[in-house]
Amino acid sequence: MSGSSQQTLSSGAASALATKNLRKYFGGLRALDGVSIDVARGSITLVIGPNGSGKTTLINVVTGFLSADGGKVLFDGRDITNKPPHEIFQMGVVRTFQNPHPLKKLAVLENLLIAEPGYGESVLQSFTRKWVKKEEELVKKAFDILNFLGIEHLWDEQAMNLSGGQLRLLEIGRALMCDARLIIMDEPIAGVAPALSHNILRKLRELTKSGISFLIVEHRLDIILDYVDWVYVMANGRIVAEGKSDEILKNPKVVEVYLGAQG
Ligand SMILES: Nc1ncnc2c1ncn2[C@@H]1O[C@H](COP(=O)(O)OP(=O)(O)OP(=O)(O)O)[C@@H](O)[C@H]1O
Ligand SMILES: [Mg+2]
Questions:
Q1: Residues whose CB is under 5 A from ligand 2 (ion)?
Q2: How far is the CA of 130 from the centre of ligand 2 (A)?
Q3: Residue among 7, 15, 19 nearest 71 (CA)
Q4: What's the pTM?
């Protein structure tokens, strides 16, 4: 029943992200066929669904990497539909990728510093006192983030020497360095060992307390469900079910979608 939707739980005003009837077509294929979702501020909202159901396309349209063929994307109530990716990024919407691509020869700390939007500009002021202060501030900010993520001991390690899970933490660190308000993650724990996966998800949970919101696509339901507030289920470009994480798998529609996908 509609009374149990996340929109109602969180009230529309507290919505970090909303899509309204979002559409994306690849020729005759309806990759997004009228998708409406709501990510409450400070929540972790999960999108699941079989392979090819449109999850990554949803992320690509929301973040401006693909243009929408219809519908709207609202961030903090502002219409960001079809804005260029860098504008959406500057507004505080940061995505992480299934295969993180840090600059591999740079150290962990350097990867954080170059993620900060102001850093490049400030190189022009590199001989001024102002710059020195700014650099000190940025290094402190980066170390605070590394400490929070529990990878401060790796600050001087080249990114290419990190494990898959550590790379995911570095991606989260880069997003925090940019003061992200909404972090969108495509399969953040794919291929990551269970212990480190739980560690990553606990960190995300802590970050929600400061009002950061998460939209996550993930297949590892055995691990992730305990950490999320609301789940949307996609199939064939549509949302076919939604609900709380402890109830969603009991929904017959969800069972049908997954069994159908295997057949
Ligand atoms: N650039 C593209 N051009 C044409 N078709 C595409 C393109 N990107 C995705 N598709 C198609 O759109 C549909 C949705 O793909 P999408 O990648 O969004 O699925 P997904 O839910 O992320 O799947 P997975 O769980 O395997 O990552 C699929 O049928 C896919 O083949
Ligand atoms: Mg995908």
A1: 56
A2: 44
A3: 19
A4: 0.90
